[in-house]
Here is the input.
Amino acid sequence: MFCRNCGKELIGTPEICPNCGARPMSGTSFCPNCGAQTTPLTEICMKCGARIKEAIVKHYPIGIEIECPEKLSRLTTFFRYFMAIPHYICLYGIGIAAAVVVFISWWAILFTARYPKWAFDFVSGYLRWYTRVGGYSLLLTDKYPPFSLH
Ligand SMILES: [Zn+2]
Ligand SMILES: [Zn+2]
Here is the structure.
């Protein structure tokens, strides 16, 4: 990736650019994907075609992408909260389990500096499920979320 502030190519995803000392994604002058010059108003890089916002999201370890739908189903929107009830029930149960797992992970990280892989997969899967149902409840999509941690 490239520093958005000074345009220098960076190795990995450092918090602070070693060249200019700024947070690499805080500037607006360069494309994070190819390093070409951009303005604060640039949405799509002229050189590599990358969407600037998406390219920034990719450089953060947690990302969320929401497509803006052209048309939404009026029928499923009407029944939205009724249809989401089974998800709320599942998420309630999984949420209690996730809280226990997070507590175990907290201790594990304190002693080993590592998030146990099984716990990481479970908690990140819970967040994935929760986020999908959140988007569905906020009417951002009419695609019914899968009952899945993946
Ligand atoms: Zn820089
Ligand atoms: Zn570019």
